[in-house]
Design brief:
Elements lengths: L1 E5 L5 E5 L11 E9 L2 H8 L15 E8 L11 E4 L9 H4 L24 E4 L2 H4 E3 L6 H5 L4 H13 L6 E5 L3 H10 L6 E6 L2 H9 L4 E4 L5 H8 L5 E6 L4 H10 E9 L11 H4 L5 E3 L8 H9 L9 E6 L3 H9 L1 H4 L3 E5 L2
Parallel strand pairs: 8-9, 8-11, 9-10, 11-12, 12-13, 14-15
Antiparallel strand pairs: 1-2, 3-4, 3-6, 3-15, 4-5, 5-7
Helix pairs in contact: 5-6, 8-9
Bound molecules: nicotinamide-adenine-dinucleotide and zinc ion (2 copies).
Amino acid sequence: MKALVYHGPGKKALEDRPMPEIRDAGDAIVKVSKTTICGTDLHILKGDVPSCEPGRILGHEGVGIIEKVGPGVTTMKPGDHVLISCITSCGKCDSCRKGMYSHCATGGWILGNRIDGTQAEYVRIPHAETSLYLIPQGMDEEAVVMLSDILPTGFECGVMNGKIKPGDTVAIVGAGPIGLAALLTAQFYAPSEIIMIDLDDNRLSVSKKFGATATVNSKNEDAAKRVMDMTEGRGVDVAIEAVGVPATFHLCEEIVAAGGTIANVGVHGVKVDLHLEKLWDRNITITTRLVDTVTTPMLLKTVRSKKIDPKSLITHRFTIDTILDAYETFGKAADTKALKVVIAAK
Ligand SMILES: NC(=O)c1ccc[n+]([C@@H]2O[C@H](COP(=O)([O-])OP(=O)(O)OC[C@H]3O[C@@H](n4cnc5c(N)ncnc54)[C@H](O)[C@@H]3O)[C@@H](O)[C@H]2O)c1
Ligand SMILES: [Zn+2]
Ligand SMILES: [Zn+2]
């Protein structure tokens, strides 16, 4: 089968690989019909994720049809149409019993990282019954692929941890796929203002279409000052950090209102200063989280009932044969205006 294989920093290739096989009783083999590329795959290719070793098939997002199941799988069968979660969970360990699937003792984020992933014609999914979700009939596969990672991430790490309430003022720093997923799902709670902050005018204009009430390009102006002016000096009730660099966390520290929350979503590779000398008396909360994907069933319903339309995040389409072009397009997002690229089976 065809697969996109990581060969160490800066190196990847489309190769023929053997079909995956059932190894444990709870496994399923899924024939991938649609997958996509995540910013995290680009992090792996830069060499930022040492747990992902050369030889690994990348990808942690996808939908497909179950081809085979192990003897322990009773609630799913060959032919079932399934969503593949980016987080693998056993459903039984201490973390899973707390709903913290991201820290599952034998799962978590392993797909396309510690085990072979979804950017292939077939993928082995361990703990299949608790890591795959049956797709209700009639749902658009492209919309469903957005539920593997970006929607639960924006919603759980940004919106839920940020405790957005009706009437709140919200700022989302970073208008990439994750920041935009937070923007879409924040609107479940009817905040009064959602200010999107980014360096990319194209992404900011997309944000306006997706429901942002204001946008700020922090390349051209002092974003903290602008947000404080817009909020009459109070700052925002919820500041969502969806970039993962010190400057954007610092911006959240500057714009959070008294009593507010900074919900960090970004993956940080270097240390960030915590300005307690300014924040100690502000009654604020700071949260961090690795996406658990516990809200996937709920988000599936919101997509099915058309409360949100995540398909609108898709800008480019490829097939597994042209996945290298998909990487090229996604990797040059500033020039190509790419948000999410979908890679279909042939
Ligand atoms: N916590 C989790 O479980 C989890 C899961 C998935 C992804 N993530 C992380 O979420 C973050 C966002 O993911 P994404 O796929 O949307 O990334 P992305 O790179 O596509 O988007 C980031 C956006 O931030 C903007 N940006 C960069 N520097 C900026 C600055 N100084 N000020 C304002 N904007 C700036 C970029 O223009 C871009 O639009 C990444 O750090 C990613 O690794 C976290
Ligand atoms: Zn991802
Ligand atoms: Zn577990």
